[in-house]
Design brief:
Oligomer: single chain
Strand order of the largest sheet: 6-7-8-9-10-11
Largest sheet: 6 strands, parallel
Radius of gyration: 18 Å
Shape: globular
Structural class: alpha/beta
Strand content: 5-15%
Length: about 325
């Protein structure tokens, strides 16, 4: 029996159930707490978030992977309260959304420090709590190429993934070759990596998606719901039907066992407006019905939402390592 770290402690893989692989309780860039234009009162934000998580539960959803990195609004004590209140398993991550969103404190840290930071948050706890990360978040900075800091973060993430057994979840598939080269150099099998946001309207490349799947990686169609037809849609949006057809082509290539889906939605956005009407529940209320109309069967949905998440999230046997830095303070 495998296990997965949640904010309330490890659970058996069998207890994950229907899982949304790339979501946010609330995401914002560093300093968003100073932008009062978009802040809701704490009690209002809590009510909105609870409503969305309870709706997720009503749809059969059981596990919510919060991909909010260090410094972007991650609050594991808040996650614990929400999990107890709604009955939804919440998995927190360590790592960074991308190098250009990392706090300045981390920007000159060596790979060894970053590796130890990630390991600490996976094996000891986050921010002085007992809540342990269940995955590592990495990402590509603006510009579409891994920056020097991105590369350090990716290398540290690969080492921490090997040494703890948790998977890596990426922000964007862009510059996939550079990322894969780092994982290969560090000896991390690509089946421990979810290359995310393949459906992002700004970085579409179906040949890249095929390449990732063919060499054993996971491909994330996880900006579902950012439809250009919606009011005030962001720059990474795309037409709803285009996204559906893109995903169907991926399935038609035989990659149902390499695909993961999610909405990358905020329960309550921090420091920006978010997308009105968009939540994790778009998966159940819009995307799955679109796939049903196209003839996709229920067994495929079970593969996408239950079996595939369980495979990647289950912690693997750690490899031996030499600890290089000891963290004694809150990270």
């Amino acid at each position: 029996m495998g296990k997965v770290n949640t904010v309330l402690g490890p659970i058996a893989t069998e207890d994950l159930g229907i899982t949304a692989m790339h979501e946010h309780v609330g995401f914002g860039l560093p300093g968003c707490d100073l932008d009062t234009q978009w802040w809701k009162k704490p009690e209002e934000a809590f009510d909105v978030t609870v409503q969305k998580l309870r709706r997720f539960r009503e749809h059969g959803g059981k596990t919510f992977v919060d991909c909010t990195g260090i410094g972007n609004g991650r609050d594991v004590e808040y996650f614990q309260v929400l999990s107890r209140k709604t009955g939804v398993n919440i998995i927190a991550v360590t790592g960074f959304v991308a190098g250009d969103s990392a706090l300045p404190y981390f920007r000159n840290k060596p790979v060894e420090y970053l590796t130890d930071l990630f390991i600490h948050e996976i094996t000891v706890g986050i921010d002085g709590t007992s809540a342990k990360a269940g995955a590592i978040k990495v990402g590509v900075s603006r510009g579409g190429k891994l920056s020097e800091l991105d590369k350090r973060i990716y290398r540290a993430a690969a080492r921490a993934a090997l040494q703890t057994g948790v998977p890596i979840i990426t922000h964007l598939c862009v510059d996939a070759e550079s990322a894969i080269a780092i994982f290969d150099e560090e000896g991390l099998p690509l089946d421990r990596v979810l290359m995310g946001h393949a459906d992002d309207g700004g970085y579409l490349d179906e040949d890249r998606d095929t390449m990732i799947a063919e060499i054993g990686g996971w491909v994330g169609f996880d900006t579902i719901g950012y439809d250009s037809e919606m009011e005030s849609s962001p720059y990474w949006s795309r037409p709803r039907q285009d996204r559906v057809e893109h995903f169907l082509r991926f399935l038609d290539k035989g990659f149902v066992d390499r695909a993961l889906i999610s909405a990358d939605a905020n329960c309550c956005a921090l420091g920006w407006p978010g997308l009105k009407g968009h939540s994790v529940n778009y998966l159940f209320e819009e995307f799955l019905p679109d796939l049903r109309k196209a003839g996709v069967g229920e067994e495929v949905f079970e593969q996408l939402l239950v079996h595939n998440p369980a495979k990647i999230l289950t912690m693997q046997k750690p490899r031996s390592f030499v600890k290089t830095v000891v963290l004694t303070q809150k990270s």
